[in-house]
Batch of 4 targets.
Target 1
Amino acid sequence: MNKAKGYLDMELLRFTTAGSVDDGKSTLIGRLLYDSKAIFEDQMEILEETSKQRGEEGINLALLTDGLRSEREQGITIDVAYRYFATPKRKFIIADTPGHIQYTRNMVTGASTANLAILLVDARHGVIEQTKRHAFIASLLQIPHIAVCINKMDLVDYKEDAFENIKTVFRDFSSKLEIQDIHFIPISALNGDNVVDRSKNMKWYEGVTLMHLLENIHIGSDHNHVDCRFPVQYVIRPQSKKFPDYRGYSGRVEGGIFKKGDNITVLPSGFKTKIKSIDTFEESIDEAYSPMSVCMTLEDNIDISRGDMLVRENNQPNISKEIDIMICWMNEKKLILRGKYSIRHTTQTARCIINEVKYKIDINSLHRNEKDKEIGLNDIGRILIKTTSPLFFDSYRRNRNTGSIILVDEATNETVAAGMII
């Protein structure tokens, strides 16, 4: 029981991988899982057998994600493949996203919750258009940490010059983007150099391995612990003999730190009260912080329902019906100017109208296109919307949780766009 509790309490790192088709993304994921002993015996047997049948020497680690490729060949739509594994230090969720331009929406989906993005660069080809595109999306999504893995170093004889040249080019390009923390690692996913174990072929490299970076990078400050935001998801009223008068408000802390006894304000009503208790499934606790899911009880009996938000009196979010958003369009039906959509934001649901398309981003040159404002599948653009009821939001740059929205087609209930509030 203690061991299981210890596993549950381990810090979770979410990371996404991005790279061109031939950059060795599948092999890198396979190598990470293989060298960190995260592959089960039956998986290993299948890997060995399949590699043998295909006449390949040793084990083809890329086959770990081959099931996804064969599914795509059968005509099944796949958004993002998630892989889970753990080491004694951390738990990990890998969002394996396709890298083609036509799968921009898939990368946005997988990267939206990531703490770190691994950008793969082929050591032979250097920084290509695809690399710049992925770096731009990582910057747009405000992913706090980027690991640029220069792969296939074995094919350039492990030369330091090849690594340094790519590093210089990428740094020049990324200086124009909003990327805070970049790490460069020369690797060979095929041979395992600097993935989990240090490379004997690149003694000139004095940095850490990819696994060491994943296990030790500081992500505690990635969450916003300044702006207190608690969107109410559900009102809990057991009305049992044990809890005859219990009324709790459950949800996930999307920012800041809430403590028992804190003065808070309820939006949109503006009523003020104090936190009476903060409860989890197992016990009452003294404080809750992002991204914990808890249930709060309040000193006063106020009418609160799903979609309301608990905040600090002197630190409130923006409250508005008119919202400026950067969106990635995810549907084959194009955006309709003056069209009506349903908007989902934290636990709020409202209706909205698209008032204006400001510009579209040219995903290749990264320039703003103010002439062609037609937004279709995989396009990224900036729009202005007006909602039927006010939303309580922060800018996406300040808080990824309260600064993100999705748009839904009311007729089909399909998600048509994901957006970042500016």
Target 2
Amino acid sequence: MLEQLRAGKLAGSWRLKLSCGLQEFPREIFALADTLEILDLSGNALSSLPDDLPRLRKLRILFCSSNHFTELPAVLGQCPQLSMVGFKANQIRSVPAAALPPMLRWLILTDNQIAELPAELGQRPQLQKLMLAGNQLQSLPQTLAACGRLELLRIAANRFAALPDWLFELPRLSWLAYAGNPFCASSETAALHTSIADIGWDELQLQHKLGEGASGVIHRAVWQRNESRHDVAVKLFKGAVTSDGLPHSEMAACIRGGEHPNLIAVHGRIVDHPRGDDGLVMSLVDDRFRNLAGPPSFDSCTRDIYAADTKFTLNAAIRIALGIASAARHLHAQGIMHGDLYAHNILRCEEGNALLGDFGAASFFAPEDRRRAEALQRIEVRAFACLLEELLERCCATDDSQTALSTLADLQARCAQENASARPLFAEIEQALLTLQVAPAVKGVCAEDVCYNARRDIVSV
């Protein structure tokens, strides 16, 4: 790609990715100044950017992850259209106020060495997504309380002794991850010591890979103990910090999550792995289940992307919503925030049976601290409001469904209130959805039975 750039063959390009051991910013990039909107320089050896970077006047998105930066470059703040900045996995210790673009919407500083953020971060009114996991932060600027558009916040694996009170007043905050901080340590340790079956590595026969995420790799496997033989999924954790947090925090939440028909069953913890890797044995997903949606795009930022032809019957929409509300209510009763309650983390079949997966952003809270516990739960309720809105937008309306649709819309509005303290908790949401529950689409089988049966064939990816 660099050779093509130097040869002038990329004229008019609006997107460019270069990962070829660069130690200096290639000046040839400025030939694309009139068109370039997305620039990805991740995976190089860069430690600075040129002072005339603003010549890329249309630049909206810049990735410089996995480089050698020790400071977020101040020149970024001079780029008028720059809204998404990604400097994950550098050695950044300093974030000067001058480095914050005026149109900043999405900032990724995961896995660095940042101990302090500038107060000016709270003066970026477009800020929606802030990813800070894996740093050395003990606090956040109180000015962030003014960021009324902030919806996703990742502060896991830092040095927080507590969450700031103003966090619970943010009107749109929906997806919060804070595991791996000192104030969570005892809960995570206790969860990892929860009684669960030990499954020897020699009892497992790994087959093909089913999927891979930031926290681990999942294989289809056969689990054989004595005469008992089961098809299962095996998740082996990588151990490195992810955008959401630490893999051992995810493992703790999976174990503590326990049994529920709309969660993925965990059969046991792997012991005696030859490299000492942590892992879980889980149920295998039935082929009928598919992801409800795809993850957010650069443009959508915090909202999932659905296939253009996605439609739901009223029955299916209610079943999906009820299953996820029930799973969230169950997790909250265990003192767990899912942290990533999104359609792209939900598996569903045509009948509408739904399974909530991916605990990478899960965090623990103390249920006995009722005020704080309910405030955290209501943050997740807003995430559910986004899901419910997406279901309603794609729901096939009929003349006899208008009353139910109106009731769902009213529930969605209550869950989405900017006054977080006025939102219902999931127990109330579940009861409201139960009143709308209709007959299962699978003749002769109740919806609950379908969910329980499907759990035998589920995997979390």
Target 3
Amino acid sequence: MASLGTDLRRMREKQNVSITQMAQHTRISVRHLQSLEEAAYGRLPGGMYNRAILRAYCDCLGVDPGDYLRRYEREITPIHDEQVKPRHAPRVPIIAPKSHPIAIWTCGLLIAVAALYASKDWIASIFSPYLTRPVPELATITVIPTPPGASRGQAAASADDLQAAEGDIALLQARASVPASPAETGESNSLQGALRLSVEVVDDCWISLHSDGSQVLVRLLKPGEGHTYAATERFYVVIGNAAGVQLKINGMPLKSLGEPGRVVRLAITEQNLHELLAKSTG
């Protein structure tokens, strides 16, 4: 079967129309007309222009261009498919975006903080012996009040002693390394009074002592120290380590004040003396 271009050329020659005459009539260049007759569609402008040239060619010869346009479509289909066949695009390497240094440092910091928070209990258990010191358990305080049979004046005096001693507690730690002043030692050459309190220190211990409402001692006592004080009516003593001292009243030992580290507040009068003495003393 002859190609479309061959049939067009035969039809033109049969009508005795030269290629030059057709070019003048259609205003299409001779080169394009010859390319159409030779089926050299690649030398034509392409697309709709090729169909326009074919249509003008048929109109010049007075034939219906419909059949020839359909034949043209069939002939160019393989070429068209080859031209429009998608080609694989060149593979472009994927480059990951560069991370900003600030973002990296921020992520690292958040991870470190989370790790520290998760292990806080473990860290505390390791370093707590080096960073903490035992403190007195202020919640376990023993107070021996004025006995019910005491006079009204004695009860008021005990309240005054309590208020004064409460202020002394705040000064105990501040005076840890300060030597005692003569007023604080409170030891007189002539101890006069109905009550004589002896303090024997066996372990480091904070002590605040009032005698008849007057402060006679506020400081940290060291093991081996011994002091004696006198009072006419009463003593009021705050002891920061219940097991750190041994107390005697008029030469008679008092009963145990409590376990080590316990804070004790103690009022001593003639009325409650029998309650404070150790059992062995009767």
Target 4
Amino acid sequence: MESEQAILAFAALAQSTRLDVFRLLMQHEPDGLPAGDIARHLAVPHNTMSTHLAILTRAGLIEAERQSRSIIYRARLDAVRGLAGYLVKDCCGGRPEICGLLIADLAPCCSPNIAEKETARG
């Protein structure tokens, strides 16, 4: 990821409604949500939500897909991975003993390894 793309993504997320939209879409991966459901869930007028969705789409953080009469929005996980990678790329000068915990915290909550460990603990 280039600096310009990272700045565009951060600028898009630097507004409370757009950050809420993005987090909501992350919660609904991989199915996504229709635009109307997003607007209702966050109590935002449809025309205002449309503007927020367009900004997030231009920033490359979400994508839209038409399904029949609905437009389904999804978070672009590759963009999230790229943004997180951009932030920690040069972490601690390559000294894993310093940045290992940070990287471990970036592991997804639903990682198969974590789910297997939780199941084993029972």
